[in-house]
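HUMAN: Mind sharing a backbone?

ASSISTANT:
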Amino acid sequence: MSIPDSEVQCFSQRATNSIYDRVADAMTNLGKDGLGEADFGIDWCTTVQDNYSRTNWSYAFSQRHTLHEKDTVKWKWALSKPTLCLPNLADIWENQLTSIEDWVTEENKRAATGSKINSCAVKSNRDLQYVDLIILTSQHIYEPADKENMTSQQTTPTSMASTVNPTKTVNVPMPTADEVIRQVFPGALYDPRILPDYRGSYFQLRQNKLKQLNIIDTPESNLKLVPMHETYAKLRPGTLVLAICEVHVYNIVQNGLPTSTFQLGVQAIKILDQSDEPVKECFIPILSSPSTDMSKDNSAIASFSTFDVAIAPTKKSKHAKGGKGKEKMD
């Protein structure tokens, strides 16, 4: 049973509890480690260049087929400007879109004439004048299991329950008391059937396991890793997040056409504030979730790890409009 929109309160609460101001201040403190302040060609660097390779790379299937071990599968999330946010945070959002546009524009100068461009900044509605969404792409969610990465999660006994689907009946892992002691940590591998949508004859993985991604819950939840099967609820629409990403452009030839695909590859996501938007309830196994901390090897990751919106925002005498982003026309 769906919840009426009138009961969604997270957006109005953020507008009044100063979390948007705290996020804006924390983002400003990131400086050049933040996407909105990083200038392409100055603060960005090229690490690998492989133009028009014939690598079989994809994160979405062009036609429906059975999922097998060699298929590359990644999740995608669409980010939008925080709802009811204040002008200072809105400017930071617009600056991020501008940084992506600068990146795409400069890379296009090196692309072959007539190349197809797949940007990571898109329009939510084709009638809009400007892009308004930023697309994040996860790491591979399935990886081959090996002895080094195998955990007790693959050997712990589970009870089984039958679930009926349009094609056949499959066995779905159900939680037992023993499963409560399972550990959730970055890179842990699980039976992919714990995902609510891993059902039917379309999924035919035999060797690959589901890989735990770096998705970190709110401070109120002790910054625990979010188990993979809970991401549907934890990253529901309306969730306020911070992501640390690597930027990639894949220049390949697909069906004889040069194609440049721009991607923000997520290294980790931190949930800053939960959403109360309604989501479909689904079966969730029980896993324990110890706290995690990321490496401090570089300034961006260090800033991500210490990103704190609990500190009261500084007082601003006057808001400076505009900034790096484009000024939208009505």
